[in-house]
Amino acid sequence: MYITTDRPATDTPVAGRVAGNVLALGMVSLVTDISSEMVTAVLPLYLVVGLGLNPLQFGLLDGMYAGVTAIVRLLGGHAADRWHRLKAVAGFGYGLSAVCKLGLMAAGSSVGAIGAVLAADRTGKGLRTAPRDALISLSSEPASLGRAFGVHRAMDTVGAFLGPLVAMGVLWISLGSYTSVFFASFCIAIIGVLLLGLFVRDRKPVERERVSLRETLAVLRQASVRRVCGWAALLGLVTIGDSFVYLVLQRRWDVGSVYFPLLPLGTAGVFLLLAIPFGRLADRAGRWKVFLGGHVALAVALIVLCGPTAWWLGVLALVLHGMFYAATDGVLMAAAGPLLPANIRAGGLALVQTGQAIARMASSVLFGLLWTMWDMRVALLVVVAALVAVVAVAAVVKPLEVSA
């Protein structure tokens, strides 16, 4: 049995309120996302336009960027459960990602070196994500998990919204120096690590029995957990990464390189506005329904990207893309959390995230291949067809014990 002690008042969930620990983790994510989104905002253009990568090469690198977290997510979640150090494992992940910003400065124009640094950065993200989400889940009442994750993701998205603006400001001040963006990103990431150490409270059990990896993997014997993992992975396989969405917008709408970092703001702004409302809706109407609805929004966004290039259609695509994230990111963790025992919450959530990460890695590579072999629109329409088919089946064969 997982019993906590020394639990501060700021970490005690109160009816109608979000726990202080969730707000503290939200501040850490806000600052960290400013740092990470500064890099994410300029990276696609830097690699494709600056270094001349073709869509397949970019797809391989983007897939690695998304998928290298797969194994370390599971290891990070298991280590946090085994040693009962959720905060420490998360902190190590945040610190590793911060240091990698300096690595990008040292990598220069070497694609191999950039790939290695991005792999290390995603390793840091993989290590921290499951322990962080476990802290949110364990600090909140089960009935309000959708709202708790919605609040956290909203705060996280404030950072995602500010990151591209800061990147554009640094590029303007430094006359287009990507190195300056990477250094500023490092400085901001360090602030996030300090906030974690000072304000986030760990969950320390009275009974400190170590959890084995076999025990963590054993949760897959539960049909509902197994189905959540399977559907999360399958849906991840039929989506495309953010970078490809922004590259399609840049190509079809002829967005200038100076304004390219602003494209993620459309997604982030909608995510920020809808994360909490969608979290509440998921608690009331059903988390699985909202989760699948988000994928429907993505399918419509991809169809819009294939159509005419009126400015308002580009805006609509970004709005739908933001709706997709608001309805899926935190909602999936809120749906999976109650299915998992408290003492292996981090490892269990990591299993869900690992399957999703592997699938998205494969998705990026496949989409890049389709784009390179055929055409941008053909690749998008293939993804839409697959996505609609999987969502239709998932709506019928929903995970057991997950509210419809």
From TrEMBL:
Residue ranges of domain Major facilitator superfamily (MFS) profile in the record: 21-401
Family annotation (InterPro entries): MFS, MFS_dom, MFS_trans_sf
Assigned keywords, A-Z: Membrane, Transmembrane, Transmembrane helix
Membrane topology: Multi-pass membrane protein
Protein origin, superkingdom: Bacteria
Organism, scientific name: Amycolatopsis xylanica
Gene Ontology molecular functions: transmembrane transporter activity
Name of the molecule in the record: Major Facilitator Superfamily protein
Zinc found in the keyword field: no
Membrane-spanning residues: 60-80, 157-175, 181-200, 228-249, 255-276, 288-305, 311-336, 348-372, 378-397
Classification via Pfam families: MFS_1
Coiled-coil segments: none
UniProt keyword annotation of Zinc present: no
Any one GO CC term of the record: plasma membrane
PANTHER family to which the protein is assigned, alphabetical: C-METHYLTRANSFERASE, MAJOR FACILITATOR SUPERFAMILY TRANSPORTER
Location in or out of the cell: Cell membrane
Main location: membrane
